[in-house]
Prior knowledge:
The complex is a heterodimer.
Chain A: H1 37-53, E1 57-61, H2 65-70, E2 75-76, E3 82-84, H3 90-103, E4 110-116, H4 117-123, H5 125-133, E5 138-144, H6 185-191, E6 196-201, H7 205-216, E7 222-227, H8 231-234, H9 241-250, E8 257-260, E9 263-267, H10 276-281, H11 296-312
Helix pairs in contact in A: 1-7, 3-5
Chain B: E1 16-17, E2 29-33, H1 39-43, H2 50-58, H3 62-72, H4 76-82, H5 86-90, H6 102-116, E3 129-133, H7 137-148, E4 152-156, H8 165-168, H9 177-188, E5 193-195, H10 203-206, E6 212-215, E7 221-222, E8 228-229, E9 235-237, H11 238-247, E10 258-262, H12 266-277, E11 282-286, H13 298-306, E12 310-312, E13 315-321, E14 324-333, E15 338-349, E16 352-355, E17 359-360, E18 393-395, H14 406-424, H15 473-480, H16 494-498, E19 504-506, E20 512-514, H17 524-528, E21 534-538
Parallel strand pairs in B: 3-4, 3-6, 4-5, 6-18, 8-13, 9-16, 10-11, 10-16, 11-12
Antiparallel strand pairs in B: 2-21, 7-17, 13-14, 14-15, 19-20
Helix pairs in contact in B: 2-3, 2-15, 3-6, 4-6, 6-15, 7-14
Amino acid sequence: MSHPTIGNRLVKNVTVQSMRDRPNCLTSGHRACQGCGEALGARCVLDAAYAATGGKIAVVNATGCLEVFSCVYPENSWQVPWLHSLFGNAPAVATGVAAAFKQQGKSDVRIIAQGGDGALSDIGMGCLSGMFERNDDVLCVCYDNQAYMNTGVQRSGATPAFARTATTLPTGNYLGNDAQTGKNLPKIAMAHEIPYVATASIGNIHDLEEKVTKAIHIRGAKYLHVHVPCPLGWGYSPSDTIKIARAAVQCGLFPLFEMERGKIMKSTPIKDPVKVDDYLKSQRRFAHLFGKSASPEALAALQDIADNNIRDYALAENANG
Amino acid sequence: MDKSMDKPFATVLGPATSLSNKTGSWRTMRPEYINMLPPCNATCPAGENIQQWLSFAQEGKFREAWDVMVKDNPFPAIMGRICYHTCEKVCNRNQFDGAVNINLLERSIGDIAIANGWQFKPVLETKKKILIIGGGPSGLSAAYFLRKLGYGVTIYESNIKLGGMMRYGVPRYRLPGNIMDTEIRRIIDLGVNVVCDRRVRSVRDEIRGFDATYIAVGAYRAAKTSAEIADGANVIDAVDFFRKLEDAPLGLPNFGKKVVVYGGGNTAVDAARTVLRLGAESVKIVYRRTINNLSAHDTEIHDALSEGIEVMCLRTISAVNNGKVLLNVMNYDEENDVLSKTDKTDWLPADSVIFAIGQSLDEGILKEMPEISVSEQGVIEIDKNMMTGAKGIFAGGDVIMGKRTVTHAIGGGKKAAKCIDAYLRGQEPVANVKNQTAAFKRLNMTYFSHNPRIDVSRLGDISFEEKDISYSDLKIVAEASRCFSCGNCFHCDNCYGYCPDNAIKKHQDGSLEINLDYCKGCGICVAECPCGAMKMTLDE
């Protein structure tokens, strides 16, 4: 099985990203690095939401790469109503924005809170949990690049096991970020039993757009976790962003699924599986697991994580029958 | 008061869009759209733009596909039957799940054209007149292309019907007469003056009144065998065999039950399969080298074997007697291509023998023309523009050095037309600029799914009726859609959709352009292009 191209003249069912008049909610001139996965992810998510609502969206952004590279004074790359307050309070501000629109009788305006994994899994965790438990009418999107990239690649609660970051430098017997640490934000969201939780990847734009389009119309709290590789922080060539995003899904380390009210509803079976080793080898943040000081135990542990995902989320090609 | 005082505290500049920040300045490498030559097009002896007609076929636009075909080859339905489709051998899809069935697609679309009566567009007239000697594939192809350029064209054909080797070399179960007639008719209907049954004895006597001449008389003289042939032995050469079969079947000898065909080319296999259809009980092909060296096309050999024809390799015929032939066992050193006779001999029962050991040009037509030289191999020598030593006299098809297939002859006719046109305008022909061929490794297989080739066996009953195997419309679309579009954009929009900087413009017609103002040169577009139609180059 193959991956669909973004568009195709022979296919009627096209993506927003292939449309000539797509909104480009995040426009050119932003200062994201070459090959930035987060910039691409944010444009894809917001364009899909924009297309699904006829442009009636408002966005609240947490601090982080996405905010810093998109609004360098006095320039701004956003072509939608957009608001930035603090690092940790984006979900709470979004709650307020949603309430204000509701008060004005404009419940057709859909609210999105967005930020990186640092802002949402660590610093803004309390605000996010509050937004979830109150079931506020907000879609929260986390662009997960698995560390604090903006400040120089420090570990976050979403950094994977054995990854090298500025604060988890492998030395001696220490193999990088400790296994059995970190948190699984989609599962935390699921535990709040909110109406909709999903994961998506920029390696599969069709799937991502479908999920945004579905989520944006649901009333109540929604959470979308988007996997966005970072060339600088992960150590790979900027041209490989999509390849790596795809490989993370194909190896089982990043499962694609949808949950509703605390239950897994659907998962996307893996096409053309790749080995976890091959995914890791493509990034310098895992280079210490290979070569002279290779650690078969660490690799086995990571393979276990992938295998468990494949089992738990029924990701094998024929699992969904 | 200073205007900046209207702004909130500490704010100096008004808001602006980031579009004023031209991030293209970061770039050291830039992506570029390129067009590469797909291997199928690169290898086609007739120079067809296969990829382009496949792309029309994918959309169900069969008329457009056919129009593209006939830009380079006026015989789609014929080609779809008898072309040895080298395109499929080099198709990059071979390295994935089997070549695109280009040959059958060409046949299917060619048949649609015949069913719908599609014709060539009429042409304007010019004053110059061109003589074409020989109405075979090369002569007809040249006539077609010259007519399209407006020249007045006259064909002299020695046989009673046009078609050359297509008619007098290819058996009817492979190419039905009505298909051939229709496609030849289309060319004649462009206003070509045809005189059949007109044997040219000497080129010199005919060229007066014409501004240029194209010699495409083919190679009709059968090679002489060195075998000793006893008086009264039932022997015929393949050229004679096929000509009689077409024009005077009653003149054919009685082949008897056991027939031996000597030779290893397509003509030998065609003759063997034909004589089987004429009622022979056993047909054996005798060939000097090993089965792997047979120059006949694989599918023809396969079909012949399936029909029960036996191939006896490493044998030569040294004598033909009544009812039997004397075979000499051969020794073949494959590495050095050295063939030697051994002392071992063997008698093989044979009621008749067909010799298909090669054909050559009948040089008689060139008498009194010393300026046209014939090489040691018995072919007319031409320059790079296909002109012989005589000014304004060109030659092509089987009379020149090169591969002797119908497809090569058609390609040669096309080139000759171009050269003749240039000559008559006093110019050099415009050289074809060929792009680099797109290799398999340039393609991104992530975006293609396994989808097996729709194969249909051509093998039917052992008769002169052709088996109807043309695709339905739906199958044409399905099979054509397997094309990878090697080296040329097929508008999948991956570059447009994956660019993190919106640095690709999509125009109204779907064409794409890189916006160098914002392209940071990350190279995602190039990495994710399925068909290798982009590349990174150093930014100057």
